[in-house]
Amino acid sequence: MNKRILIISQHFYPEIGSAGNRIKNIYQLLTHKGYDVSVMTTDPSYPNKKIYEDNMFWDDITIENDSPKITRIHVSNRKYSRSLINRLFFFIEVAIKLIFKIVKDKHKYDFIYVTSPPIFIGIVGLIAKKKMNTKLILEIRDLWPESLRGVGVFNNRMILKFFGWVEKVMYKNADYIIVNSSGFIDFISEKAHLPPGKIHYIPNSAREYEIKSTSVSNEEYRVIYTGNIGLAQDVEFLKDLARKLDQNNFNLTVIGYGIKRKELKEFIQTEKLENVTLKSPLTRKDCLEVIRQHHVGIVSLNDKQVFDTVLPGKVIDYMTCKIPIVASVSGYSKTLIEENHVGFVSENREVDEIYKYIKYIFENPKERITMSRNCESCIRDNFLWEKNINSLEAILNETD
After folding, report:
1. Structure confidence at residue 48 (pLDDT)
2. Where are the domains of the chain?
3. Beta strands in the chain (DSSP E)
4. pLDDT on residue 399
5. What is d(CA 358, CA 364) in angstroms, rounded to the nearest whole number?
6. What is residue 384's three-state secondary structure?
7. How far apart are CA 27 and CA 23, in angstroms?
8. 50/270 Cα distance (integer angstroms)
9. Which of 14, 49, 56, 81 supports an S-S bond with 86, CB 3.0-4.6 Å?
10. Name one GO molecular function term (predicted).
């Protein structure tokens, strides 16, 4: 009999963003390998519910939304508002409704696979493990609540201390822990005093069919930024870079969403930046196609220490499309970009230095071609789902 796996995730197809894409690929690849996989998730709502009224986002015919294997809960609260209280209520409502689904679920599973953040989904996973008397695989995609401190929006010591305790309980009670950044391994191991063998690294990755490039004209130099424009991404840096590129007649495309998008949009309009284009969110397929039409991809994170452990999904996306990266980051992301020679990094986050790197890539097409080839090599060696799913399958078969 094939092993049964229940995935519990707040994010899933057709949601855009790294989390939804990650769980979609895990679901598809495990199903293809013969595992009996079910998903418990929400109606799509990231970055907002309204965009999923457009049928273009429901573009994968291999996933049937009415499949009995996919259970979706409806959430009434709005999630991605500026209000931290609204987000908190959203997370709590999701957790409570998922718990009710678990209580009513009479199926037996060999594994519960739960992905966090938010931390409340991890709590749901612990309840599912106990109720269903099965093994729990806990996936950590971000260090939460540490990231709350990093973006500086919430500093209540008592509540953060409580969530820190919950975090440790989750780590200790999981049978296996999966992280999407190797930078998380030491942090989690030290915090919960876990043996290294309990934590497994499975990064965000690309699919084989996504790795390709497009011939781009050198007559019009094009730079791109994609993804979240939130509290972690340093919107002031993006503003300054947009102005600098516009002044020097470099074209910048931003495909973005998040709570700072409106601020960036107003800045572009106020400054009358004619060479900067702000696009609405696209499907992953369309977004990758637009990325391929550019020469350089931009990455930015603010300078808080917690983000030194993070590898933004856009780094993988740019390499998948074989375009060099110019980044305002430090830590793990900086090391990966520089060691694989897929781009340049300004750790001090100076716009003039970033512009210098962009200009250098433009003026040195041979170097750009070398970096493009390195991007593909790095993806094929380290960030290919068809390979990396084997690490998860090894965990699922460990007790055989």
Report:
1. 86
2. 4-205+384-396, 208-382
3. 4-8, 36-42, 70-73, 111-116, 135-140, 176-179, 199-201, 222-228, 251-257, 276-279, 296-300, 325-328, 343-345
4. 64
5. 10
6. strand
7. 6
8. 27
9. 81
10. hexosyltransferase activity
pTM exceeds 0.90 for this model = yes
Tokens describing residue 277:
């284009």
The pLDDT, as a whole number, for residue 151 is 53
62 CB neighbour count, 10 Å cutoff: 9
Q: Which structure tokens are listed for 94?
A: 């999701």
The whole-number pLDDT of residue 289 equals 96
Triad 22, 308, 118: Cα angle to 5°: 45
User: In the CATH scheme, what is the homologous superfamily, with its name and number, of domain 4-205+384-396?
Assistant: Glycogen Phosphorylase B; (3.40.50.2000)
pLDDT digits (tens, 9 = 90+) for 153-206: 556 677 778 888 888 999 999 999 999 999 899 889 988 888 878 999 999 999
Using one digit for the tens of pLDDT, what is the confidence trace for 240-264?
A: 999 999 999 999 999 999 889 999 9
Instruction: Quickly count: other Cβ atoms within 10 Å of residue 157's Cβ.
Output: 7
The structure tokens 């040195």 sit at 364
Return the exposure string of 221-252: e unless at least 16 CB atoms fall within 10 Å of the residue's CB, then b.
Answer: bbbbbbbbbbbbbbbebbbbbbbbbbeeebbb
Q: In this structure, are residues 160 and 148 in contact, taking their beta carbons and an 8 Å threshold?
A: yes
Tokens standing for 293? 């039409």
| Contact status, residue 234 vs residue 300, Cβ threshold 8 Å | yes
Q: Which parts of the chain register pLDDT below 70?
A: 1, 77-84, 145-156, 399-400
208-382 has the same fold as 4-205+384-396: yes
